[in-house]
Each structure stands twice: as C-alpha cells, then as structure tokens.
C-alpha cells in the first residue's frame, strides 16, 4: 500500500507565507505583503597593538534592524498611513508597536515577530496609468528599534 502522508507529522513541512496577521497598537490591519523582517550584527574588526599574529580578529558588534515594508491596497477614505506620516513634526512622532504573526491552517499563530517603537519613513503610492488596469497599491516603509521573534 502506498504512503498517502496521513500519518505524517505536521512539523515535517515548512509553513506557507500567505496566511499572516499584522496588528498595530492592538488594531488588526490587512496587508498584501510584509518584507524586511531581518536583523543583523555588524562585525567589529580589531587588532591589538602588541599582538604577535599579524591579522585582525572579528567580534560581534551592535545589533541593527532594517526597515519593514508593508504593502496594501488603496481604499476609499483610508488615510491611516498618511495621517501617521503627517504626524512627524520637528522630530516628534507617535511610535507604535507592531506584531506580525504567521498563522497555521486553523488561524493560530506559529511564529510571531514583535516590532518595537516603529515609525514611518517613506510612503509610496502606485503609478497612475490611463491604459493600466492594476489595483492601486500603497507601501509604507517603517523604521523600528527592536525586533523579537517568538515561536508558538
């Protein structure tokens, strides 16, 4: 008898990326795409002056976070991003926390990214073309201070 996979564990297969949820300060928002969930450490290159080995060593430096890019369709009378972006005045802005959850088939979070102290740095709207028939998409680029990851 052929193996149909019915006995196979659900943890064998990687998670699909199309089922996710974004909440911003407790309010759930709908997005088409989320990118930029990354963090890195810039290496510190050092060589002591009295080191007999004529080469440098590398040490881990400060942790840096990139920017998030969120894309969504443009809806009538929805100025959420523009209002948030317009709130930047003389280096003051309302920073918000975001939670991005990758969901399983039942809608339960399996992986959660918590983004702290986020603020918008750039908003881009779709190109307008008289001969096109694409959906209008706007994207917002968001800088943040810290990202943490939880596995459910």
List the helices and strands and how they pair.
Elements: E1 20-24, E2 27-29, E3 33-35, E4 39-46, E5 57-65, E6 68-73, H1 80-86, E7 96-103, E8 109-124, E9 137-143, E10 146-151
Care to describe what's here?
By secondary structure, the protein is mostly beta strands. Helix content is 5%, strand content 47%. The chain contains one helix and ten strands. It has one helix spanning 80-86, and strands at residues 20-24, 27-29, 33-35, 39-46, 57-65, 68-73, 96-103, 109-124, 137-143, 146-151. The strands form two sheets. Strands 1, 2, 3, 6, 7, 8, 9 and 10 form an eight-stranded antiparallel beta sheet that branches. A two-stranded antiparallel ribbon has the order 4-5.
Number of helices: 1
How far apart, in Å, are the first and last alpha carbons?
Answer: 36 Å
What's the CATH C level? Mainly Beta
CATH superfamily: Hcp1-like
CATH fold annotation = Pnp Oxidase, Chain A
What's the number of structural domains? 1
**Strand residue percentage:** over 45%
Rounded Rg: 21 Å
Name the shape in a single word. Answer: extended
Number of beta-strand segments: 10
Write down the overall mean pLDDT: 85
* Helix proportion: under 10%
The helix/strand order is EEEEEEHEEEE
């Amino acid at each position: 008898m052929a193996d149909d996979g019915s006995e196979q564990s659900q943890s064998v297969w990687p998670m699909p990326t199309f089922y996710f949820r974004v909440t911003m300060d407790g309010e759930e928002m709908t997005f088409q795409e989320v990118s930029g969930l990354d963090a890195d450490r810039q290496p510190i290159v050092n060589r002591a002056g009295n080191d007999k080995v004529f080469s440098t060593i590398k040490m881990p430096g400060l942790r840096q976070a990139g920017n998030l890019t969120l894309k969504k369709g443009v809806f009538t009378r929805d100025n959420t991003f523009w209002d948030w972006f317009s709130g930047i005045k003389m280096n003051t802005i309302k920073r918000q926390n975001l939670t991005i959850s990758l969901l399983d088939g039942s809608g339960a979070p399996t992986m959660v990214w918590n983004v702290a102290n986020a603020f918008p740095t750039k908003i881009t709207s779709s190109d307008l073309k008289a001969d096109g028939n694409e959906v209008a998409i706007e994207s917002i680029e968001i800088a943040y201070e810290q990202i943490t990851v939880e596995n459910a």
